Amino acid sequence: MTIELLKSKIHCATITEANLHYMGSITIDEDLMDAANLMAGEKVAVVDNNNGERFETYIIKGERGSGCICLNGAAARKVQVGDECIIMAYAQMTPDEARTFKPAVIFPGPGNSI
Fold it and tell me: Does the domain made of 3-106 have the CATH classification 2.40.40.20?
């Protein structure tokens, strides 16, 4: 048996762009991805703290050091630039693995800096 636990979390990042005319996904600054142990193509849950929207998408690598958090495609309709969001990824693991696992949780500063 496996259970699903939080693997990675970017807590209270600021949405910098919303691009409706792009094929779905969320673009995340590569520095933020590295700090939160996230990979390009990985499935993530996104929560907009300003309006309560919750949705899932996948990650596209953004320019390193840019602070970019850009919602693309249909998800762009669920957010506004300047909104605060939480980005989470989960992993399947056995209960024994879960007992000692520590998720990567980051709290970006101004401009989504690390």
Answer: yes
Catalytic residue list contains 58: yes
Measured distance CA(39)–CA(29) in Å, rounded? 11
Q: Which residue out of 8, 58, 66, 113 is catalytically annotated?
A: 58
Q: Which of 8, 22, 25, 113 is catalytic?
A: 25
Query: 6, 28, 18: which is closest to 114 by C-alpha?
Result: 28
Q: Global pTM?
A: 0.96
At 63-96, the pLDDT tens digits run 999 999 999 999 999 999 999 999 999 999 999 9
Residue 90 host element (H or E): strand 84-93
Respond yes or no: is residue 22 known to be catalytic.
Answer: no
Q: Are 65 and 31 in contact (CB under 8 A)?
A: yes
Rounded to whole angstroms, the Cα distance separating 87 from 2 reads 23
Domain regions of the chain by residue span: 3-106
In one-letter notation, the amino acid at residue 24 is G
